[in-house]
Amino acid sequence: MTTTTTQPRSGEDAPFIAAVPARPFGLVRHSLVMARRSLIKTMRQPEQLLDVTLQPIIFIVLFVYLLGGAIAGDRHEYLQFLLPALMVQNVLFASAPTGVSLNTDIKTGVFDRFRSLPIGRSAPLIGGVIGDMIRFVVSIGVMIGVGYLLGFRITTSFPEALAACLLVMFMAFCFSWMFVLLGMIVREPGAVQGLGFVIMFPLTFGTNVLVPTDTLPGWLQAWVKVNPVADAMQAARGLMVGQGAVAGPVVRTLLWSVAILAVFAPLAVRAYRRKA
Description:
The protein is mostly helical. 39% of the residues are buried. The chain is elongated and about 60 Å long. The chain has helices at residues 10-19, 26-44, 50-71, 75-93, 97-107, 110-115, 123-131, 133-150, 158-185, 189-205, 218-226, 228-241, 247-275. The longest helix has 29 residues, at 247-275. It contains 13 helices and no strands.
């Protein structure tokens, strides 16, 4: 009696393949593929970029023309003070939808398909965060472009301004992992978005974004002095328009960003692996 061996179909051996450890550098390659998927999805649904294209314009026009004359007495001077800090605020707001997008993928079953693929378990998360960084680039580009049309000018140098943009993008990348964690543990995308705003509003508006710190009440000054977003705003002002100290705020921003990444990225990956 002869025995025939049947090769399992791809659907049958998928659970085994998914359990095979990734080859060296495989996670990086898989994450970049997932980042490309995220970019393609964004390009096919450009309405996802409305918040990073319209919101910066609305904020600049609203704050400069509503508050500029009352706070600074001169709208151009206020624009120079406001725009670097507003850039930080808008880029950090742009990091919140990352968690919403990942939560939506889980709800629609996309991540169930990822589980059957021979890819690193963390690749969908890492790729999603990297792919969503296009939102940061668009937000910064719109913010600086509109600012220049209204009279904003970088008074330092191009390398310093570029360093400010990269610093803000790195901080937003680290903050994204907070929202990735929310996307893993919260059931509904709407709830992720709502919690994201609850977190971001005190962090971004409880700063010196609109007025100098010394004009705030004492209890709020105490919060601003320990708020990492306020340090990022001061660093951006120093690097782009030469207002205030640079070295201290830059170092504190980097330390806070690395600490946030070190805490929330492992927690998000762990939460995802429990789901997967």
